[in-house]
Structures are given as structure tokens and as C-alpha cells.
From TrEMBL:
Residues 1-25 form the signal peptide. This is Ciliated left-right organizer protein containing ZP-N domains homolog isoform X1. GO terms for cellular component: extracellular region. Residues 257-355 form the CIROZ beta domain. It is found in: Secreted. It comes from the Eukaryota. Residues 87-145 form the Zona pellucida sperm-binding protein 1/4 Ig-like domain. Keywords: Secreted, Signal. It comes from Cottoperca gobio. It holds the Pfam family DUF4556.
């Protein structure tokens, strides 16, 4: 009897082991054959200038074979830096995520991207290897809606105490409204209604959003090509999306120099990938200034620097509260075009300098020159910004941003006079 029981028990254990092994084998095969990153439209994230697709590491060999055949290049997944130099010719890029899977980015202006029925479409024919002798092709589609109007405008207003930045409220590629938060220096993140916690004011007016803060509370010093300025590292963030509200104010001075130096932060103006760590270099192809043709332009990896004769743009007005003082100010309207995107960046700076005594003889003019657009009245809220806890007190001790090395050759606009 004991032998019979032992035999039944042994058969039961063997049967359970066989069933468990079969289940695990099936699950493993299903995980390999149908990974969570099956390339369907739902796996494509659409941004303003590009689309991205998450690819499981078990599929990456198929993408490598497609890239090799389509672009006629040698693909080495072990050296992504070198591979991305090759892919940049077609406005593609490939990056690893924290789990060592892959993100494939395709610009809407990239190779093989077509416009079909209101969508940007790229079809990928990826080979799924069956054994070491062959594979089975699978066709996958990257697809994102066309965006007719990109929010490309930024208006910056600076005075000795405040900075104010106005941009259009962004929507996603399907014109859906997004729930935005503020991100200061990529560390402090608050909801829009809690902007006072990071010493900011928020205003909505029609299609525009305006952010405002005290210079000493929210700006960091930055040095570009031996010239100093103050930088606002602010973004709107929502889910996977980020939207730049970054801006630079000229350093506050009590006197006017012969030349005015302005720093424009280079970036894509629409929705971008939040927390993206790839350092995409944007290269300027054209610069135009509305107020004057007499300027020079230089670029670094992060900024475009404009040098304009001050007399071409500077105006004065009576200082508020004292008719015996004058307040210098200027407005500059710039259009930048980058090689990597079809969209232009429309950038406006209005800077108001400290009030000064009326000089006996001055080169400053009180009326615009022939090519000068008159500055609008600056609309700053000069009330005190209060919060329950001075979260930004420690930001006063932030070290200046490192000087940007001029990695790109000096760019002179076609309108530049040298």
C-alpha cells in the first residue's frame, strides 16, 4: 500500500513539474513573440517636431536590419553615439531608456516620412528572426497628425526687478488641452495654481499664458562668450510633454553701452520630450532683426548671441513718478531659423533700464529710428510675492551656469553688416 501511495505521489509531482515547465515555456515564448512594445500606433508618442516609438530590446535587431538596408550604413548597436551621427543625416536618433530598451525618434522632416491623409507616416519593415538562418518580416507604422500651427512665439519683458514671459498655450497634436505644471530648474514642480510657491505669478489671456517673477528670486547668472546675463530655467510639464518658458534677461546696468548684447536660448518651440537627456544641437541657418539690419550674430551650443549698436534701438520715456528722470528702454523682434526644423522661432525682447538723470547732451533718442518698432508699455505686477515658505531662498546661492564653449562656427545673418 505504501509503495502504491509513493508511486501516485511521484507521478503527481512529475506531472506538476511538466505542467509548470510548459506554462513557463509558453509565457516566455509569448513574452518574446508578443512583447509589450508591439509596434502599433498606440505605442507612438507625438510631439510638435518629431515622433517617438518605444522598442523592446528583443526587437532592436530588426530595426538595425531595417536601418542598415534603408540608409545603406553599418549599424552597430553597441556604439549609439556613432550610430546617431549616421542617423542624423536622416533626422533619426536612437536612445536607450532606463530599462535598456530603446526609443526611436523620427523627425517629421526625416527620410521616408510621408504625409498621408493629414498624418506624418513612416512605415518600418522589421524582420523578426525565427532562427539563425532567417526571419519573418513585419510591417509597423509610426503615425502622427499634422500640426498646422506651431506655438513658435516668445515675448520677454525685463525691467530692473522683474522678468515676464508670454507664450501661446500649447495643445497636443490632436488639439487636446493638457493639464500643465511649472518646473523650475527641473527640480521644483508645482501646479499652476500653486505658482506662488516658487515665487511666480501666472496669468491667462486668450490663447496666451504669462509667467512673471522677481529677477532675484527666479533667475540664475549665465555667462555666454564673456558676456553676462540672467537665465530663467522654467518649463511647463504635463505627462511626457515639456514646453519651454526659458528666457534670458540682460544684466541690469545703470549706464548704456555702445553695443547691446542679447542672448537667445536655442530650443524647439513646441512640445518636446520631458526629461529628455539627449543633447540635440540646433544650428542656426538664418537670423533677422526687425528694428535694424546692422547687427552681428554668433552661436554657441546653447545660445544665439546678437550684438546690436545701442543707438539703433534705444529710446527713452519719462520715468514714472519723476518728470526729472528719463528711463531708457528698447524692443527687439528677432526671427530665427534652424536647420533641424521647418518652424521659425519668433522672439521678442523688451528691456527697461533703470531711471537716470536727464543728461545735458545725450546720444539717446526719444523717438524710434526709421526701422525701429516702438515698444509697448511694459505691464509688470509690482506687488509683493509672498509664500508660506521661502522655497527659493536657497536658490540665491546657486552657482553661475558654466560658460558655453563656442562649439559651432560664428553665424552671420545675411542681414549682418560687419
Amino acid at each position: 500500500m505504501e509503495q502504491i501511495r509513493f508511486g501516485i505521489l511521484l507521478k503527481t509531482i512529475v506531472l506538476q513539474c511538466f505542467i509548470t515547465r510548459s506554462v513557463l515555456s509558453i509565457q516566455k515564448r509569448e513574452w518574446i513573440d508578443t512583447p509589450t512594445a508591439r509596434l502599433t500606433e498606440g505605442d507612438v508618442v507625438c510631439f510638435s517636431d518629431y515622433m517617438e516609438m518605444w522598442i523592446h530590446s528583443v526587437r532592436i535587431e530588426g530595426l538595425g536590419l531595417w536601418l542598415s538596408g534603408a540608409l545603406n550604413i553599418q549599424v552597430n548597436m553597441a556604439s549609439l553615439d556613432h550610430l546617431n551621427l549616421q542617423l542624423s543625416a536622416c533626422a533619426f536618433s536612437l536612445h536607450k531608456d532606463p530599462d535598456k530598451n530603446f526609443i526611436f525618434r523620427v523627425s517629421y522632416t526625416g527620410c521616408f516620412v510621408q504625409q498621408q491623409h493629414g498624418y506624418h507616416v513612416l512605415t518600418l519593415n522589421l524582420v523578426k528572426r525565427i532562427n539563425r538562418f532567417g526571419g519573418r518580416p513585419h510591417s509597423f507604422m509610426m503615425k502622427c497628425p499634422l500640426v498646422s500651427v506651431l506655438p513658435s512665439r516668445e515675448q520677454i519683458q525685463c525691467d530692473p526687478e522683474y522678468i515676464q514671459v508670454t507664450r501661446q498655450v500649447p495643445y497636443d497634436n490632436w488639439d487636446n488641452e493638457l493639464q500643465w505644471s511649472l518646473s523650475l530648474s527641473d527640480h521644483l514642480i508645482v501646479a499652476l495654481e500653486d505658482a506662488s510657491l516658487i515665487q511666480m505669478n501666472i496669468g491667462m489671456s486668450g490663447p496666451d499664458i504669462t509667467v512673471q517673477g522677481r529677477r532675484r528670486e527666479v533667475l540664475s547668472p549665465v555667462k555666454v562668450m564673456e558676456n553676462e546675463g540672467n537665465f530663467l530655467a522654467l518649463k511647463l510639464v504635463s505627462g511626457q510633454y515639456a514646453y519651454s518658458m526659458e528666457a534670458t534677461c540682460p544684466k541690469v546696468t545703470t549706464s548704456t553701452a555702445e553695443k547691446t548684447v542679447l542672448h537667445i536660448f536655442k530650443r524647439r518651440m513646441g512640445l518636446t520630450k520631458r526629461g529628455s537627456r539627449d543633447n540635440e544641437a540646433l544650428t542656426v541657418s538664418n537670423v533677422s532683426v526687425n528694428q535694424t539690419d546692422n547687427f552681428t550674430a554668433h552661436e554657441t551650443s546653447a545660445f544665439v548671441t546678437l550684438i546690436i549698436p545701442t543707438a539703433q534701438i534705444l529710446q527713452t520715456k519719462t520715468c514714472a513718478g519723476s518728470k526729472r528722470l528719463l528711463q531708457p528702454f528698447y524692443r527687439v523682434d528677432v526671427v530665427l531659423t534652424f536647420k533641424q526644423t521647418n518652424h521659425k522661432m519668433q522672439w521678442t525682447m523688451e528691456n527697461t533700464l533703470p531711471c537716470t538723470a536727464i543728461p545735458a547732451a545725450s546720444h539717446i533718442t526719444s523717438s524710434p529710428g526709421p526701422n525701429t518698432t516702438a515698444s509697448s508699455t511694459l505691464n509688470f505686477k509690482h506687488e509683493s510675492l509672498t509664500t508660506e515658505q521661502p522655497l527659493l531662498d536657497r536658490l540665491h546661492q546657486r552657482a553661475p551656469l558654466e560658460e558655453m564653449t563656442a562649439e559651432f562656427p560664428t553665424t552671420n545673418s545675411p542681414h549682418t553688416q560687419t
